[in-house]
Amino acid sequence: MRPLLPVVFAAMLLLAGCVAPLQTDGGSAAAPADGETPPNISVSGTGTASADADLALVSVTISALDSDAEAARSAVAEDSQAMFDALTDAGVDTEEAVTTTFFRISPEYDYSRDGGRELLGYRAAHGYQIEVTPEQAGDAIDAAVGAVSGDGENGIVVDGVQYTLTDETRADVRAEALENAVDAARADADTVAGAAGVSIAGVRTISTGADYNPYPQPRYAFEESADGASTVLQPGPVEVSATVTITYDIE
After folding, report:
1. Cα 78 from Cα 154, distance rounded (Å)
2. Of 98, 173, 100, whose CA–CA distance to 136 is shortest?
3. In CATH, what is the architecture of 55-164?
4. What is the bridge-based pairing of β-strands 118-132 and 155-164?
5. What tens-digit pLDDT sequence spans the chain (251 residues)?
6. In this structure, are residues 58 and 137 in contact, taking their beta carbons and an 8 Å threshold?
7. Under DSSP, is residue 136 helix (H, G, I), strand (E, B) or coil?
8. Which residues form the signal peptide (predicted)?
């Protein structure tokens, strides 16, 4: 039998050429090979900022019911013109501030009859949005409602008031909310990294999520004047919320 020593010795030499020596750097993560993603952590942060509302959106609907569709449309057109005139007298630039939100003419039925329905007539409805300053909102409502008489079937309905921000103000508030979101994300990243015994090395990726901009609900009140009670609205501040997701490299 041939001795095994030369064969074993040759195998040891082969393995020695394939295994690299183990290297350490005192506990920090080893540098990744080309094409590999370095160690990282991802966190999300939410920030908020607020400002006083500087834009009010008043939504109204003028409607009329008549046995003839054209007559219903004409009644709505006349009431709309009366509202426009009243808003102009109240200092509202109707060409810039008033826009149509919807318009429709549709049959209206009474379904209370057993086994059938009865045509009541045709309902014409024209919805408007009036953009004014928060201080003008109450006066705009009073002007619009006062200009359109109602008899139960015809008239005006105030669908609601939304207080919000102009584009310029919203951009400033959103920028502040984003800064707060980034600060919150970094604070969480530092906490997680410290608990894991590593440290933040830099930002790898960052993305923003959808903003959340709730409308504050106005508080209604009535203020007595020589001509009767007037509508007074008291909005709260508008808050903008922003979210970011950041991936940090760690070492």
Report:
1. 12
2. 98
3. 2-Layer Sandwich (3.30)
4. unpaired
5. 444 444 333 333 333 343 333 232 333 344 555 667 789 999 999 999 999 999 999 999 999 999 999 999 999 999 999 999 999 999 999 999 999 999 999 999 998 877 788 999 999 999 999 999 999 999 999 999 999 977 767 899 999 999 999 999 999 999 999 999 999 999 999 999 999 999 999 999 999 987 766 666 665 554 555 566 788 888 888 999 999 999 999 99
6. yes
7. helix
8. none
Fold of the domain spanning 29-51+168-250? Translation Initiation Factor IF3 (3.30.110)
Instruction: For CA atoms 200, 202, 208, 213, give the dihedral sign.
Output: positive
Question: Beta strand 40-51 with 118-132: parallel, antiparallel or unpaired?
Answer: unpaired
Q: State how far the Cα of 57 lies from the Cα of 197, in Å rounded to an integer.
A: 53
Give domain limits for the chain: 29-51+168-250, 55-164
Task: Give the whole-angstrom CA distance, residue 161 versus residue 181.
Answer: 30
27: left (phi over 0), alpha (psi -120 to 50) or beta: left
